[in-house]
Specification:
Length: 102
């Protein structure tokens, strides 16, 4: 999720920090950044809920290490999905909130 003014990393923490300290300027740019962050969080929660439906245990149970890994994997995939998807929930939210501006 690379946005102008967010910094070199461009990850969600960088974007959130850029929103908080004013490095992302302009109403539309700020709204686009916030909508993209929202979409990433939405995807991450959706992946978490989906993963909770999978039965645990068995011979391949990884314990707490597996939980940390899958949480980080879900976070990464959610960030990538939000950054790639122009017609997702973030884009729809942005279009809805800016429709009266035109």
């Amino acid at each position: 999720m690379t946005l102008p003014g967010a910094g070199p990393g461009g990850g969600p923490k960088d974007v959130l920090a850029a929103l908080r300290d004013g490095r992302i300027q302009g109403r539309e740019a700020r709204l686009k950044a916030a909508a993209s962050l929202f979409e990433g969080v939405f995807y991450q929660e959706m992946f978490k809920a989906m993963r909770e439906t999978v039965p645990e245990g068995g011979a391949a149970s990884g314990g707490p290490g597996e939980d940390i890994f899958t949480g980080l994997l879900d976070q990464h995939v959610a960030e990538a999905a939000a950054a790639q998807n122009r017609r997702g929930i973030g884009g729809a939210l942005y279009r809805y909130l800016t429709r009266g501006d035109r």
